[in-house]
Amino acid sequence: MSDQSDNGKTRINRVITRSGDDGRTGLADGSRVAKDHPRIRALGSLDELNSALGVLRARDLDPDLDGLLETVQQLMFDLGGELAVPGTVTLTEEDLVEVESQADTLNAELPPLREFVLPGGHPSAAWCHHCRTLARRAERDLVALAATDDGVNPESRAVLNRLGDLLFVMARLINQRTETPEPQWVRRGER
């Protein structure tokens, strides 16, 4: 398998390397760590999140939401690059402000919440809620890595936190735009 980058250089020329059979994997800086290392857990959570975002984007979404999710996927790949090369900083305060701004813009289209929302409604909204939970797990894994490695970019942790908020708002907006009732928690005794 071969993949050409923009500059014509081969980025990946072999998928099967057998180098991970001993329970260790290589980082982009050439170092090797155990596959259950906190850095690899965080990378795995990001990969799972990005894959789920791809599934969400494969659904029939409004173009503005699809474009926003493409930007988010790019950010998550940038964050993965930070983790693959320890000490690298890619995400910035501008990225954080952009994610916050997008969440605020989408939220302005929504009515205020009167009760807790249950994940569900339109299938795309339900999948967006799933992506939100994966973003929260990726955030927790990044926080766990930061507890043992002071080289973790604090802006990246904050971006993941705001991404969870953005995905929550987006799920609500998908339900509204598709005119799908938003499932809400009903207090015990009122059900």
UniProtKB/TrEMBL annotation:
Pathway: Cofactor biosynthesis; adenosylcobalamin biosynthesis; adenosylcobalamin from cob(II)yrinate a,c-diamide: step 2/7
Keywords associated with the record: ATP-binding, Cobalamin biosynthesis, Nucleotide-binding, Transferase
Chemical reaction(s) catalysed: 2 cob(II)yrinate a,c diamide + reduced [electron-transfer flavoprotein] + 2 ATP = 2 adenosylcob(III)yrinate a,c-diamide + 2 triphosphate + oxidized [electron-transfer flavoprotein] + 3 H(+); 2 cob(II)alamin + reduced [electron-transfer flavoprotein] + 2 ATP = 2 adenosylcob(III)alamin + 2 triphosphate + oxidized [electron-transfer flavoprotein] + 3 H(+)
Domain Cobalamin adenosyltransferase-like: from-to ranges: 16-173
EC numbers: 2.5.1.17
Region (Disordered): 1-33
UniProt similarity note: Belongs to the Cob(I)alamin adenosyltransferase family.
Stored NCBIfam families: PduO_Nterm
Protein name: Corrinoid adenosyltransferase
